[in-house]
Every structure is written in C-alpha cells, then in structure tokens.
Amino acid sequence: MPRPTIGIWLVGVKGGVAATTIVGLCALKQGAVDDAGLVSQLPQFRGLGLADWSRFLVGGHEIRDVRLFDEAMRLVTESRVIGRELVEACRAELDLIDQRTRPGTIRSVGPTIEQFASAGVPREESPRQAIARLQKDLSEFQQSHGLEHVIVVNVASTEPPLDRSLLPASWPELERELDGPAGGRLPASTLYAIAALDLGLSYINFTPSLGSSPPAVGELARLRRTRHMGCDGKTGETLLKSVLAPLFFCRHLPVMSWVGHNIFGNMDGKVLNDPVNKQTKIASKDRLLGQILGYRPQTLVSIEYIESLGDWKTAWDHVHFRGFLGTPMTLQFIWQGCDSLLAAPLVLDLVRFTELAWRRGELGALTFLASFFKSPYEVDQQSFIHQFQMLEAWAGRERG
Ligand code: NAD
C-alpha cells in the first residue's frame, strides 16, 4: 500500500461524525465495505484523478480525554449502526490516532461545550497564543509524517452564534486586533480556521459554527493562497428541503407554511439542547426556503434532545401549500436517518474533492462544493440539483 501523503486533521476527532469517518476510511482502505453514500464514487467523478483512500492519514484536536476506540464502539453498542467486527478491525488505527490527537481550544465556545473539556485543555491562553499552539500541532503532524498537504475539517460541537458584523472586515485589521475585543469574541472554530489557513492548509467547516465564514478570514485564505468551504453538512431534513422546495417553486404552488420537528439523542443533540447553541443550527436549517422560493413562508424548525434515540435522527415535516383555485394541500414526510452515517461519507468526499482542488491550485471559497452544505459560502443558489450540477460542471472543467 502506498505511503499516506495527505493529512486529514479532524477538529473534534473523538466525536460521532469523526469516529464514523475514521472507521469508514479504515474500512475502505481494507476493502471491507462498498461505496454506498460516497458521492465521489459516482461515475461522473471517475477519471478525475481523485486520491485513493490509502493516501490519507488522520490526526486531530479534541477537548475530551477519551479513547477513540471506545467512542467508535458506542456506534456498535449504543446506536447499533455498525458491526462490531468493523470497529475491531480498525482498532490498531484508532489507537494510533489517539497518539496523533492534541488538546483543542475552548475559547468562546460557551458553557455547554466547556463542561465536556478535560483538565488538559488550556484555559488561560489568549487567541494569539491559542492559534500559535494549534499551528504547532498542525505543523508537527505534517512534518513528522512527511505529508504534502493537510486538510483541516471542523466536526466539533456547534458553538453559540456570533454576529459577524462585530468583527473587522479585513484580515490585517483582525490580525492586529487578535488580542483585543474582536479577537476575544472569536470562537474556537474561527481560531482553528485561522491557524490552518495561515499555514496555507485547506479548511472545511462541516458545522454551523462561525469557522472561516468572516470576510476577514476568507481574505486570509486568499492571501495565503489556500482554500476553504462551509458550512454545516447537508445530510438529512435540510437536504430534503433543498430537493423539495424547488418542486413547489417550479409548479407555482405557493408554500404557506413549512414546519420541521427534529428529534435525536446523541452528544450533538445534547449540545443543541442549549437554546443558545441551538440558535446557530436553526438559523442554518431555516435560511434556504426563502432563498429558493423567493418569499418567506411561515416556518418553524424545532430540535429536541430525546436521549433514547441516540444517533437516530427523526425529522417530521409538514408543508402546507396552495393549489389551483386556492385549495390548501399538504405534504408530510418522515426522515429517519443515522446522523453519523449520513455525515461521514460526505466528510470523506469533501476531503477528496478538496485535495484535488489543492493539487490544481484552486484558491478561496470552493463554491463547487455547495451541494454538501446547508449554508454554502458565497453561493446564493440553494436548490440541491443546481448545486449538484455545479459539482458536475467543475468535474467537467477539471477533466477538460
Ligand atoms: P459530537 O458531539 O458527537 O462530536 C463533537 C466532538 O467535538 C466531541 O468529541 C467534542 O468533545 C468535540 N469538541 C467540542 N468542542 C471542541 C473544540 N472546541 N475543539 C475540539 N474538539 C471539540 O457531534 P457529532 O454528531 O459528531 O457532530 C459534529 C458536528 O457536525 C456538530 O457541530 C454537528 O452539528 C455537525 N453536523 C453533523 C451532521 C450529522 O451528524 N448528520 C450534519 C451536519 C452538521
């Protein structure tokens, strides 16, 4: 097997999405699973020269002092979503990733996330010190494994929202103010993004947290001739919204209201049970309907933590729309998906497409990845099929 040359650095490396991504990558390397759920394996992306799974090596930042193997086993014993033999076969790799894990930062993540942090996570460092420490970890990972490039993917818990207008608009201003009031507001996800982009590494934000979304951080990406994309992986209810809303638009069926109730019980659900952290997710889930329909129907998005459901997310949506002669009609759907298993293949796809974008020297926001996100950076187009065509068009250009 060829030596790994590309690093995947997962922020939140012991969480549910991360553990599933790692077990999935390990199983793919072993040829133990097929490619269901992996977009990059579709025929239209063949011949692009996407990197083989054997090329990737995983490390990461984490705030909880737990063993990755134990976290992965929770997918077997608690969520019952994957077979024990799959995790057992990856045990050696999971133990190695424990050794490649470094303490993260909990700057401005709010009390709900802070409570999970173990004693080894620094609490007194300034934003500038935190960035320098994270960069040291990233550089050591890259150098000690002789990696050509590292892609940092944020799969950590969802932070409380921050009004971006409170931040300086340009990178030089934000850089100057890192240890001032602006820097003090920056949540951990943005410190990780700055750390990665400043080193010229690629950064992907799979969460709705602020990450690299402030314009000043986008400018940093361009200045350092690197790339980034986000945010918030589109895996379930919102994916369906972005497929179904265009139907109502194209058939001229005015939507009067769209109500979505989401229940699930994993650790992500526990964090989102905090009304402040929940606000970030709800804003991300609610945004796209107005953009697709061109008007804002009455909407309600609820997210409730129901412990017994574990990783199994259930979404029930009720869409009330008006037909010919003003007759009200209803569409209802129930989506029952295993959250981590929906997310993990997308993380692997994102890494693979980003790696190719790095080899081809693409810079700034990778807008061709819009179909993977609920709130894609610099893209107004929210219809899933149009976003997917953007990915296909990019592949066509890469090939051509
Ligand atoms: P999780 O709670 O299982 O995992 C999050 C991990 O991040 C935990 O191990 C936690 O200790 C760690 N963490 C928290 N703050 C950190 C910090 N500042 N630095 C380093 N590590 C930190 O959650 P999950 O189900 O794996 O989801 C991960 C993220 O992905 C969440 O923000 C979630 O909203 C987002 N997301 C998930 C899905 C999906 O699962 N289908 C879809 C879209 C987005």
Q: What class would the helix/strand composition place it in?
A: alpha/beta
CATH topology of the largest domain: Rossmann fold
Going by CATH, the architecture of the largest domain would be 3-Layer(aba) Sandwich
Q: Counting H and I runs of at least 4 residues, what is the number of helices?
A: 15
Helix content range: 40-55%
The H/E string reads EHEHHHEHHEHHHEHEHEHHEEEHEH
Biggest β-sheet: strands ordered side by side in the sheet: 3-2-1-4-5-6-11
Name the CATH superfamily assignment of the largest domain. Answer: NAD(P)-binding Rossmann-like Domain
- Count of DSSP E strands? 11
Q: Roughly what is the average pLDDT, rounded to an integer?
A: 95
Bound molecules: nicotinamide-adenine-dinucleotide
Give me the oligomer status.
single chain
Rg, please? 21 Å
Number of domains: 2
Q: Termini distance?
A: 30 Å
**Residue share in β-strands:** 15-25%
Tell me, what is the CATH class of the largest domain? Alpha Beta
Question: Could you describe the largest sheet, including whether it forms a barrel?
Answer: 7 strands, parallel
Indicate the low-confidence ranges by residue numbers.
none
Shape: globular
